[in-house]
Amino acid sequence: MQKRFVSIWFRYLKTDWLTIRRPELKEVPFVFTLPDRGRIMITAANKLAEAEGAAAGMPVADAKAVVPGLQVFDDKEGRDAKLLKGIGEWCIKYTPIIAIEHPDGLVFDITGCAHIWGGERAYLKEVITRIKSKGYDVRAAMADTAGAAFAIARFGRVKAIIEPGGHLQALMALPTAALRLDDAVLQRLKKLGLHQIKSFVNMPRSVLRRRFGEGLLLRLGQALGYADEVLTPLHVIPPYYERLPCLEPIRTATGIEIAITRLLEALCTRLQSEGNGMHLARLTCYRVDGKVQQVQIGTNRATYNVPHLFKLFELKIAGIAPALGIELFVLEALKVEEVTLQQDALWAATSGLDDAGVIELLDRLAGKVGAESILRYLPNEHYWPERSIKKALSLQENPATDWRTDRPRPTQLLARPEPVEVSAPIPDYPPMLFIYKGKRHAIKKADGPERIEREWWIDEGEHRDYYNVEDENGCRYWLFRSGHYAGTKGNQWFIHGFFA
Hints:
- By secondary structure, this protein is α+β, with helices and mostly antiparallel strands.
- The chain folds into three domains: 1-28 and 69-237, Reverse transcriptase/Diguanylate cyclase domain (Alpha-Beta Plaits); 241-364, Dna Ligase, domain 1, CATH 3.30.1490.100; 412-498, no CATH class.
- It contains 14 helices and 20 strands.
- The chain has helices at 13-21, 47-51, 60-66, 79-90, 120-133, 146-155, 167-171, 183-191, 205-212, 214-224, 253-273, 306-314, 341-347, 356-369; strands at 5-10, 30-36, 39-45, 71-74, 97-101, 105-109, 138-143, 241-250, 276-287, 292-303, 326-338, 377-379, 389-391, 412-419, 421-423, 433-436, 439-452, 464-471, 476-482, 493-498.
- A seven-stranded antiparallel beta sheet has the order 14-20-19-18-17-16-15, with no helix packed on it.
- Strand 18 (464-471) and strand 19 (476-482) form a beta hairpin.
- Helix 6 crosses helix 10 (214-224) and helix 11 packs antiparallel against helix 12 (306-314).
- The longest helix is centred in the middle third of the chain and has 21 residues, at 253-273.
- It is elongated.
């Protein structure tokens, strides 16, 4: 595919920004200034001030002498970069790859984008019109290379759109400054009478290198397309990424649902063809007013199941505020994992966590109550009951040991044993009744004791004698006595769990 670039030049970036914020300055000449080596220097002048003789790089005292009524405002370091970044993020609807051209421009890699707006001419008109409607005075150009687009936008006088393959001819009549050269190189070219690109473009490379250095060859090569130019985009594009620009702003939940479905279908088709599935996905909605809305979903197992993923996003739609309308939807798969044939088989299984229905249910519950509210426990290799289980890191984590089944264990284990009052016929017999939280439970059946010793390499203390007991209502409990019978010693009996 033929590469295409758009360069946008903000002729009065900082002064336009202030005029937008303070409309009363529209008819007033003003400048921005910063101190430099003991003098106050102009860093930017608005169109009126420039027309009367003020310019960037001039001492403000000289400017005041030639421009009556000149207003002066303090500048800030890095303001231009901050403004370009904000405008670039607002323009993300036009292309995913936008880079800053310091100090006063942006460059778009629009390869494969223009057709969405009806062609290159309509695309460029849309971009310029929208930016100008915000209050910025801009010029723009489109060409096969970022360097050629830069040159045409700032120095071209004929046309803004250079047809594919026509950038060499378009550059010929432009001044040498159009190549983004250092001042020292420009001065040497000027001294030799080389004022236009055509005056040296056909010279041998060895001659140009010897007289002007590698910098000239690099910039010339970038403009002509035989040297690569690496753009640093404002946002790094993830490997799995889909965009959906909207010809008309989307304001309804139904429109948002349709957009999500289309994005999921496109992205999941690609994932499935590569044998991958998404674990974590983020939907970003760019509104007409420049604000951004984001929602994120996660799954317990990588999947490319569109209906399931849509249901997870559907839970989040109520949190998206379209306001005046959403003009761009972007779906990113933030975490992608391989979906093996074995995993595909598990999705069709019918038991436990290998059941697709169970996994999908857990995903939807996580979307409603939060993933941190859903916990899974695995057996841990310890005798002491409090240490015999551990939280799983994920649903896919395999246990290091099997659950113990030779002895009954309660369905619900208390995090910490709670004291109970017990009555027993003789010290080492099972209890006849116990009182827990003020309620009396008469025991009809009991089994035990099961002695569990402390793990001496971890801590010290008494052993426990556990009993499984059932009260008159058929409810079953797990009680234990701590240590041997101690007569008049304080309460030794505790409840530690409940059976189903």
